[in-house]
Design a protein that fits this description.
Elements (H helix, E strand, L loop, with lengths): L2 E8 L3 H10 L1 H6 L4 E6 L6 E8 L2 H8 L2 H9 L8 E6 L7
Antiparallel strand pairs: 1-3, 1-4, 2-3
Length: 96
């Protein structure tokens, strides 16, 4: 069973955030991310939700603790006080 990290955060500028996020894709792969998804609120375009799937909660927590992730988030204009991470067990995955 995979663990999905659900990360909510506010960004100063979505386009600037997106560029840093896209540039960090290699580090995601190296950090054990199996799939990712970026979502943007329709009501509040500064609110972004990201999902990352990992083999385990330990792998997810290790990735979230990486100093280079913190640095990238700061460079991307993430409001650090807005970051909220939830760890979820994947029960099912698939397209319908």
């Amino acid at each position: 069973m995979r663990t999905v990290a659900l990360i909510h955060h506010r960004v100063a500028d979505f386009d600037a955030w997106r560029q840093v996020y896209d540039d960090f894709r290699g580090a995601q792969h190296e950090g054990g991310v199996h799939f990712q998804q970026a979502l943007r609120s329709q009501e509040d375009p500064a609110m972004v939700v990201v999902t990352h799937a990992f083999d385990s909660r330990e792998a997810a927590e290790a990735f979230m603790a990486k100093p280079e992730l913190r640095t990238a988030m700061e460079q991307a204009g993430v409001d650090g006080s807005s970051v909220h991470v939830e760890y979820l067990d994947e029960v099912e995955f698939g397209e319908v």
